[in-house]
Write a structure and sequence with these properties.
The protein is α+β, with helices and mostly antiparallel strands. The protein has 1 helix and 5 strands; from the N terminus they run αβββββ.
Length: about 120
């Protein structure tokens, strides 16, 4: 039988170093991806919380559960508030819309602002 030269040396040190570098780069990219994902998830949660508060205040104003105080500088009814446990400020502006004759009730334009989230709607009183 013909015996050839056998290579039982295994991996060289260069091959092991290159493999470790590739694994290290892959792990680094994966960890960065997870970190960015967690940061984005936190921003989305904050936005959702502010949106929920804005919708709640818009519904309360539409139902007449929040009464606004008159701001004489710009003829708008404005009320401001703060949700202490969440440290979130909100602002509600109610503006009467002229030019809708024939309606038994007044027409109002509502704007609710909650730290970067604005919701506007039209309603009757």
């Amino acid at each position: 039988m013909f015996k050839g030269k056998q290579n039982n040396r295994g991996f060289t040190i260069i091959e092991v170093i290159v493999a470790l570098i590739i694994v290290g780069i892959s792990i680094t990219m994966f960890v960065r991806l997870l970190g960015n994902s967690a940061m984005l998830r936190g921003k989305i949660n904050d936005y959702d919380e502010r949106m929920e508060i804005a919708v709640e205040k818009a519904e309360q104003s539409f139902l007449g559960l929040i009464e606004a105080g008159l701001d004489l500088d710009n003829d708008k009814n404005i009320i401001k508030g703060k949700i202490e446990e969440r440290d979130i400020n909100w602002r509600l502006e109610v503006e009467s819309i002229d030019g809708f004759s024939g309606y038994e009730r007044d027409v109002y334009f509502y704007t609710v602002s909650v730290e970067g989230v604005d919701i506007s709607s039209v309603g009757f009183r």
